[in-house]
Amino acid sequence: MRAAIITGASSGIGRQFALQLYNKGEADFFYIVARRRERLAALKDELGGNAKIIEADLTTAEGIGSVREALEGDNPSVQYLVNASGFGKFGDYSQLSERDVSDMIDLNVKALVLITHMCVKYMPRGSHIIQLGSGSCFTPLPNFNVYASSKSFVLHYTKALKYELKPLGISTTAFCPGWVKTEFLGIATEDTSVRTPKKYSPLLDAERVVAKAIKDAKKGKVMSVTNWFTKLQHVMFKLLPDSILSRAWLSMLKKPNAGDK
Ligand SMILES: NC(=O)c1ccc[n+]([C@@H]2O[C@H](COP(=O)([O-])OP(=O)(O)OC[C@H]3O[C@@H](n4cnc5c(N)ncnc54)[C@H](OP(=O)(O)O)[C@@H]3O)[C@@H](O)[C@H]2O)c1
User: Fold this and answer.
1) Segments of the chain with pLDDT less than 70
2) Distance between CA atoms of 143 and 11, rounded to whole angstroms?
């Protein structure tokens, strides 16, 4: 039996990965991880009941421990690991709460690394790890700083891990989409007193971007960039100095509570 472990499976991109890997016959059994049990139960039904629900807050040691326990108990053969749990908050250093800063790092960085480490021993040759990076991982982004920095970590971590896992025949892909229509943006902009982007365009469809990410992972690509706009961004980020890019980003943010221009 080929298993898939998917964190952040209760919503958006993670949920799409579970459904598409199931529908494409890429995995037969799913470990679906998130905090909202009722959402995971509904997803389990959509996966034909072939899933184990792991209700876990991955910012905590207990949450990480429950994933470890499930794997140790079942000793599965893991064909796909998708680390999709994550969140971001807009705001500058003085506006973000200590809790949000700490949780962003614990979830986007620490949990992703710990779960990857614990899964590798269950992964056979030809299996795939997909880590959720972001289009925001390529350059410093003031007022989205901690989130973007956490995703830069994911990109570098994934690129280096590729070489470490090559002898084991396991591929690693950093999936770096632009803005995607999920619950992410609502959570990122909950605080209306901070500066946020004037526009989120193009706003991508989770189903389409996930289909592309699965294709890229199967090709063994170390980075999956979803559309022409993110590809263009990536090239520009390589060519232009950070000082220009960070200022350009700031010019795309609106004043708190101001409408789009
Ligand atoms: N949407 C975008 O524009 C975009 C762009 C680039 C990258 N990404 C990345 O894509 C990934 C998925 O985001 P999404 O767009 O699908 O957003 P989403 O719809 O908000 O999904 C986030 C997932 O993370 C889970 N999660 C949040 N906090 C958690 C915690 N403490 N412990 C365990 N699970 C937790 C949520 O489940 P529960 O709330 O049930 O715990 C949910 O399943 C994230 O890593 C995000 O950074 C998103």
Assistant:
1) 257-261
2) 25
